[in-house]
Protein: histidine kinase
Organism: Spirosoma arboris
Amino acid sequence: MISNHSPDGFTILLVDDREENLLALEDMLATENRTFLKATSGSDALRKVLKNESIGLIMLDVQMPDMDGFEVAHLLKSNPRTKDIAIIFVTAISKDEQYVMKGFSEGAVDYLQKPLDINVTKAKVNVFERLYRYQQDLKQSVQKIEQINKQLEKFVYVVAHDLKSPLTGIIGAMSLLEMAAENPEGIQDELLEYISHSKEASFYMANMINSLLEYSRTSIDQQTIEEVDVQELVEQIARLLFPPKHITIQIHGPLPVMRTKKLKLQQVLQNLISNAIKYNDKAEGLIEIGYRDFKNHVEFYVRDNGPGIAVDEQDMIFNLFQKSARNPDTTTTVESSTGVGLSILKLLVEEQGGNVWVTSPPHQGSTFYVEWTK
């Protein structure tokens, strides 16, 4: 009986030059979740192993005409792709220690003597099946750890990026304080305004740090979903990014109130608004923020009148380490750009089941759209 392959199945390759031995061994070992492949020669066995990555155990006859089991085992163990597959030698030749040791030296993990004892054979195969499953669980754990490490790398970048803008504003306010100490006249009103913004930015950063700490302690599925007033959130972001005097931010609101993961939405909108400020090259910069409501999602947009993005770059800017000059007709660019911001933003949006894209007619600025699932 050959069972259907499944993700939880266990595939055994049976190798013997006699068809009746293969049938008897398959009948002996058959269970619901096992799949059997059969080979009648060493070369046939090698071909099947290379074509089937799911093989967990090989029951390998030693005495075969074209290539004996020792040679097959040696070739399998020499190949990085197949070296970890467990091999049990099945043989009718001498039980002398020299033959047994030769089998182990070629990579066998066990030895069964013909005629096979049914109970012993079943018990040994069951043990190797359990070991195989433990090995697969370990591989999945390693893959999960690697995935978590990548998420942590992304997390560290987002934290640094999101805290940088309000911190820059606070540093600017401190510079004004130094100027006020030397020449207190003429900047009092501006100074008071910056001090007020700096105080608010400090509270904003403290709340963000608390949110980030909470985020780091919980999985994606466990992160808090809360009611978010997006209008209030965007107004706060716009203030605390300290836009230059020549840049106007217009919010076409009121923006919606929705239940979502606030930190994620805050990171996405802050990155888009920050980029719109950062890359704007106009004497009178304009940034517009709005949304459209759909049945299952909200579509936010951040539009600017900056230099725009070349058509051939619009699909690439969301790729990791891909930079955009933003204006192909000028030398305008930002040297400190790492090319990772928009790729991470895209991941943040896709984690919520949404999408992000950009439209940018030549020399008419850019509009970034974010599809955010309700």
About this structure: Confidence is low (pLDDT under 50) at residues 1-6, 327-340. Residues 118-182 form the longest helix (65 residues).
